[in-house]
Design brief:
Strand content: 15-25%
Largest sheet: 7 strands, mixed
Number of helices: 5
CATH class: Alpha Beta
CATH superfamily: P-loop containing nucleotide triphosphate hydrolases
Radius of gyration: 15 Å
CATH topology: Rossmann fold
CATH architecture: 3-Layer(aba) Sandwich
Length: about 180
C-alpha cells in the first residue's frame, strides 16, 4: 500500500514514515535523497541514520534519477523515500544548471516508482502556507513541489499530513 506523507519540518514525518514502511514487508529499504552540501546537512543525515538504527533498513543513496534505485532493490519490498523535497532540489538545482521544468519528469518518475514498488512511503515537506512572497526562483521551487505533491496524492493509496506531531488522514486509511 502506498502512502504519501506531508507536513512541516521537524514534525515527526520521518519517524512515522519509518513505522509505516516497516509494516510493508521485507526487504526494507530507506531511499536517502539528500545530497549533503554543508555541516547542517551532514548532521541531519547522522540524526536520521541514528533514528533508523536497528529498524532493519537497507539504505539506498539516490539523490537523482529515482527510478535507478529500483535496479538495486526488490520492488516487492517496502520502501521509504525521504524526501521528495530534497529530490526535487537535487533535480531542479543540478550541478549542470537550473532545470525549472524538472518537476514534470520527477512527478512522472515518482508515480512510476509507486506503480512498480507499491509498498512505498514518500515523505515531503509542506511549504505552501507561508504568506511571504519569496524571490522568483524560490516561488518556482514551491510551485514545482506542490505539483509533485498533488500528483503523489492522486496516485497513492493513503495521504497523510503530520502537523505538530498530530496525524491527519486526507485519503485512504491510517496504516498505524
Amino acid at each position: 500500500m502506498s502512502t504519501f506523507i506531508s507536513g512541516g519540518c521537524k514534525n515527526g514525518k520521518s519517524f512515522y514514515a519509518q513505522r509505516i514502511a516497516q509494516q510493508g514487508g521485507r526487504p526494507l529499504y530507506y531511499i536517502a535523497t539528500m545530497i549533503p552540501h554543508d555541516d547542517e546537512d551532514q548532521a541531519r543525515i547522522r540524526r536520521h541514520r541514528q533514528e533508523r538504527a536497528g529498524w532493519g533498513f537497507e539504505t539506498l543513496e539516490c539523490g537523482r534519477d529515482i527510478l535507478s534505485c529500483l535496479d538495486r532493490a526488490d520492488p516487492r519490498g517496502s520502501f521509504l523515500l525521504d524526501s521528495v523535497t530534497a529530490l526535487l532540489s537535487n533535480e531542479m538545482f543540478a550541478p549542470e544548471g537550473i532545470h525549472s521544468d524538472a518537476h514534470l519528469a520527477l512527478a512522472d518518475d515518482l508515480a512510476e516508482f509507486v506503480r512498480r514498488a507499491p509498498n512505498t512511503v514518500l515523505v515531503s515537506d509542506y511549504i505552501y502556507s507561508d504568506a511571504t512572497l519569496y524571490d522568483e526562483l524560490t516561488e518556482a521551487y514551491r510551485a514545482a513541489l506542490a505539483h509533485i505533491d498533488r500528483r503523489l496524492a492522486r496516485c497513492c493509496d493513503n495521504v497523510i499530513e503530520v502537523v505538530s506531531g498530530q496525524i491527519l488522514l486526507h485519503k485512504g486509511v491510517l496504516p498505524l
